[in-house]
Every structure is written in structure tokens, then in C-alpha cells.
TrEMBL record, chain A:
Organism of origin: Pipistrellus kuhlii
PANTHER family for the chain: ATP SYNTHASE MITOCHONDRIAL F1 COMPLEX ASSEMBLY FACTOR 2, ATP SYNTHASE MITOCHONDRIAL F1 COMPLEX ASSEMBLY FACTOR 2/ATP12 PROTEIN, MITOCHONDRIAL PRECURSOR
Membrane topology: Peripheral membrane protein
Keywords of this entry: Chaperone, Membrane, Mitochondrion, Mitochondrion inner membrane, Transit peptide
Protein name (record): ATP synthase mitochondrial F1 complex assembly factor 2
UniProtKB/TrEMBL annotation, chain B:
Function field: Plays a role in the assembly/stability of the mitochondrial membrane ATP synthase (F(1)F(0) ATP synthase or Complex V).
Species per Swiss-Prot/TrEMBL record: Pipistrellus kuhlii (Kuhl's pipistrelle)
Record-given protein name: Protein FMC1 homolog
Family assignment from sequence similarity: Belongs to the FMC1 family.
Gene Ontology annotations for the cellular component aspect, listed alphabetically: mitochondrion
Domain of life: Eukaryota
Length: 294, 113
């Protein structure tokens, strides 16, 4: 049964891997116009050193491809030196706010929306739509809320009470069968279920799919991600359900602030960024002015 | 549908997060693009006589998600500063942990610059 520690190390590895692919030699200094005067030591497998905030103002302009971010007079670029453009104004404002909220040093590890935009623009893993969908649906075989324990009794009860309603909702919403399992092989997902979900995900565009795959990887669950996409769960709820066993153990044995709280906040931040990214990239903003009925 | 609570509470939370974010800089938070956008969005989608408007619910959900993002990032950074941001100890501090002191040679060791 996958343990919390194993998922944690997978998380760290993936985060390190993403950094490696996103940042070319020379660190993030290469991505923004002028090179910094402070030389940053380049070690291939170390995370980039923190940069000082080198800009005063962050503004948004509208270009041909979409909305662009300007740091003072310099246009923001992705790690692969493409121009940073986003299709949605709200997303641009949120990214600008991320850059504006950095004080003294720029903490790249807190700028989740920027990272997601960079990944969508650069596509460093060079996956197409089909590959992204397959990567996301693959998690269904070991979906957190389908993979149950057999003991202790109280945890079994808790999993049943908290996770079964989500499965019921998903089964009803999509007209599929999912079910849960206590076997080490995981749940057996019928082919039809897989097909229905694949075709549902195919209705989202590339950017939204990057976000979807990201959230699925963070929560280790396709079901919870669907719940978030359909506004059935809040981020806090989904994160709690994803970490159900961990929360159970914390309640039983006590919590360690510098580990549990730290990881909880980080997971919440990443998931919230991913969910917001999905919604902002897949909405069509049509403002219908209703007649005022005073 | 997700249990979100009243929109006013979400908006208040968002404004509070913006305030915390801009406390470090000299600028008032009301000048930021985020503030203007949020206030305008909430005003445009104010609760009308239709209680089951999906667009409203979507906006509220996105706002609540953004609030979760801002709050979690702030708390994450605070926890990082408190527990993980101290860096390495200097050689003197490390020796001090076990009660040892570094040797002191008045003339230097000879090979130092």
C-alpha cells in the first residue's frame, strides 16, 4: 500500500526534475532580458540560488498573442526565452501579483502560476494532448480514493465515509463504474470508464490539460481532480481527502509543524494554483448583462 | 456543489491577503491590479434575484480557490522562514554545540592570506 513517505519522495523528485528541465544552464537569469550583474554559480543538479528582486513595477500589457507581463520596462520571458503570453486577463493579473509580491528575494518555488504558464508555453516534456490525457488517466489505476486499506478498522470506516460519496458522485455524473478495492493490484477499472473519461478530458485545451495533469499528480487522484474541475469540491476539501490517511495518523499520534503543516500548505498552494489555472484557461468570458430587476 | 460560504467572506479574505502582501511595499493595496479586478468582478456578478446562477458560483469558486492559493503560499513561506530558512551553521557554532572552541593562534596559521 503506498505510504506517505513514498509519495513525498516522489513529489520531491518530480519537483527537482521539473526544475532541471525548465531552467537552462545559467539559471533563471537567462529568462529575463538583461543578465544579472550578480553571477549565479551553476551546478547542474542544484536548485537555482535565490535572486534579488531587480524590478520596481510589474505591469500588464495586451499584445498580439495575449496578455504580457512587464517587469519595469523588460518583458517577461519563459525559461526557454519565449515571450510570456497568457490568454486570460485574470491569469495575467494573478501572475503579475505573484511577481509583485516578492520582497527582497524572488522565491521561485512559491510562484506556482508562473511555473504552470511556463510549462504550458515551453512544453519542456514535449507531450501532445493525447499523451497528457493518458498520463492523467493512468493515475486511475492507483487512484487514492479507490485504493483502500483493510485495517485499522477506524481508518477503513473513515475511508468509506469520506471517499465513497466522491465515487458515487463521479459514477453518477459520468455514468461510469469505478468501485474501490483493497487488493494490492488496485481497482480494476472497466475499459468503458477509461474511454468516457478520456473523451471528457479531450474537450479541454492544451493549457487546461497541463493544469489537469499537474493537479492529478499532486493529489494522486483523478477522481478528486474531476471533483475540483466540476466545482463539486473546494481545494481545502480535496487536499484533505487526498491526505486522509496522513490526517488520520496526525490525529492519532500528533502533528509535527515543520513537516506536516509545511507539506499541507505546499500541497494546498500547488493544488489551488493548478485548479485556478484549469478554470481560467478553459473558461470563455462572455459577460451577459442582465436586465436590472429592482 | 462545493460548500463555499457567503461570497462576502471570500472577498474579505482576499482583500486581507492583498493587504498582507502589500504591507512590505510602500504602495497601498487598493492601487494593485488584483484589487481592482476582484472588486469589479464581484460587483459585476453580485447576487441577483436568481439564486442558482452557475456563472456566479463559478466566479465564487475561482475566488475561493485564489484565496486558498494566496493564504497557503503566505503560510508556506512563513513556515519555511521559521523552520527551514536558517541555512548552515558556521564552524564556530557547530563546535559550540558540543562545547568545543576553535583553536586561536595569535600569529595565524602561516598559510592564511
Amino acid at each position: 500500500m503506498p505510504s506517505g513517505a513514498m509519495w513525498r519522495s516522489c513529489l520531491c523528485l518530480r519537483h527537482g526534475w521539473r526544475r532541471l528541465l525548465n531552467r537552462p544552464p545559467g539559471g533563471p537569469t537567462a529568462s529575463v532580458g538583461k543578465r544579472a550583474s550578480i553571477p549565479i554559480p551553476f551546478r547542474a543538479y542544484a536548485p537555482p540560488a535565490e535572486r534579488k528582486r531587480f524590478y520596481q513595477n510589474v505591469t500588464i500589457t495586451q499584445g498580439e498573442g495575449g496578455f504580457e507581463i512587464n517587469l519595469d520596462h523588460r518583458k517577461l520571458k519563459t525559461p526557454q526565452a519565449k515571450l510570456f503570453t497568457v490568454p486570460s486577463e485574470a491569469l495575467a493579473i494573478a501572475v503579475a501579483t505573484e511577481w509583485d509580491s516578492q520582497q527582497d528575494t524572488i522565491k521561485f518555488y512559491t510562484m506556482h502560476l508562473t511555473t504552470l504558464c511556463n510549462t504550458s508555453l515551453d512544453n519542456p516534456t514535449q507531450r501532445n494532448k493525447d499523451q497528457l490525457i493518458r498520463a492523467a488517466v493512468k493515475f486511475l489505476d492507483t487512484d487514492t480514493i479507490c485504493y483502500r486499506v483493510e485495517e485499522p478498522e477506524t481508518l477503513v470506516e473513515l475511508q468509506k465515509n469520506e471517499w465513497d460519496p466522491i465515487l458515487e458522485w463521479a459514477e453518477k455524473r459520468y455514468g461510469v463504474e469505478i468501485g474501490s478495492s483493497t487488493s494490492i493490484m488496485g481497482p480494476s477499472i472497466p475499459t468503458r470508464t477509461r474511454e468516457v473519461l478520456v473523451s471528457h478530458l479531450a474537450s479541454y485545451n492544451m493549457w487546461a490539460l497541463q493544469g489537469i495533469e499537474f493537479v492529478v499528480t499532486q493529489l494522486k487522484s483523478v477522481m478528486l481532480t474531476l471533483g475540483l474541475m466540476d466545482l463539486h469540491l473546494t481545494v481545502e476539501q480535496a487536499v484533505l481527502l487526498s491526505r486522509l490517511e496522513e490526517e488520520y495518523q496526525i490525529q492519532k499520534w500528533g502533528h509535527v509543524e515543520w513537516a506536516h503543516d509545511y507539506e499541507l500548505r505546499e500541497l494546498r498552494a500547488r493544488t489551488a494554483a493548478g485548479v485556478l489555472f484549469i478554470h481560467l484557461c478553459s473558461e470563455s468570458t462572455t459577460v451577459k448583462h442582465k436586465l436590472l430587476q429592482e | 456543489m462545493a460548500a463555499l460560504g457567503p461570497p462576502a467572506r471570500t472577498l474579505r479574505g482576499l482583500l486581507r491577503e492583498l493587504r498582507y502582501m502589500n504591507a512590505g511595499t510602500g504602495r497601498p493595496y487598493r492601487d494593485t491590479a488584483a484589487y481592482r479586478y476582484l472588486v469589479q468582478a464581484f460587483r459585476a456578478h453580485r447576487v441577483t434575484s436568481e439564486k442558482l446562477c452557475r456563472a456566479q458560483h463559478e466566479l465564487h469558486f475561482q475566488a475561493a480557490t485564489y484565496l486558498c492559493l494566496l493564504r497557503s503560499v503566505r503560510e508556506h513561506v512563513a513556515l519555511h522562514q521559521e523552520f527551514h530558512g536558517k541555512g548552515e551553521r558556521s564552524v564556530e557554532e557547530a563546535a559550540d554545540l558540543v562545547g568545543l572552541k576553535l583553536p586561536h593562534q595569535p600569529g595565524g596559521k602561516g598559510w592564511e592570506p
